[in-house]
Amino acid sequence: MLGWRRPFRLRSVYERMLGTELELQIVAATRPQAEAAERAALDEVERLSALLNRFDPASEFSRWAATEGQPLPLSPELRQVLEQAELWRERSGGAFHPGADALGALWAAAAARGHPPDPQALAAVTAALRFPLWTLNQGGTATRHGTLPFGLNALAKGYVVDRAAEAAFAAPGVRAVLVNAGGDLRTLGGRGVRVAVADPSTPRDDAPPLTWVRVRQGALATSGGAHRGYRIGPAQFSHVLDPRSGQPVAAVLGVTVTAPDCLTADALATALSVLGPAEGLALAERTPGAAALLVTREGERYASRRWGQRGRLPPALTGR
Q1: Are the C-beta atoms of 265 and 290 separated by less than 8 Å?
Q2: Rounded to two decimals, what is the model's pTM?
Q3: What pLDDT, on the 0 to 100 scale, is given for residue 226?
Q4: Which residues contact 286 (CB under 8 A, 6 or more apart)?
């Protein structure tokens, strides 16, 4: 056919972005259009990181989190992430909680000392987590309560991945986009991508995958303790902590979630790690468009109903 040409496929990888490796795949009609979409995605990552990065003391989140009892105006982006954090805290019955960072600090200090955390200190933090850490006020302001440390890491990264993918996909001539930040990914357009689900029982990167899952017009996120945790004496504990008890998760070894967007997938992956198979899969079933696979420490696999509906695609991103 006269005038037809093969679409241009761009793939780029950036180190130390969003605290991990950032991969972009873009299919567009021409190379200049693909490169313009790449710039749009990177600009969005940079812009949102300046607002949401908890490790940057100059970020909007860090400056607001350092206050106490003061109603301060927030950007729409930070307010939206805070709204989602509160929504998922309520929806999960407290299994997802931004204040779990305070528990993590206690466990990290305990691991450095070589002794378990003080039970009274854990009880004090879990008691404090039963109360709101902030209030979102009318007029766009928010009030930070207390000084308990908290973070928006999982949600914030998922939110940035979503926005970066949307910015690239909105660029002229773009047919398909994939944004992958350390395994948290979002696809838009095209025929999707086939993703290997890592075996959570081993930290080896070259281990055979547990299974494969198709992600199309959606997102994927994982949670597991194979690569991270707290060692105290001969015992190894998961880095995933139950905000309701202060204890590391023991029953669930790994969770993989697909969902319509990466923020939802990230929130569910964390919540399901804490809730376990029965409650966790029930939450996944109640979440529109979500599917989940849980692996227990004994090696048992539990899949939600929609997980079995995921098809297979070639491993490379393809255009429409």
Answers
A1: yes
A2: 0.91
A3: 58
A4: none
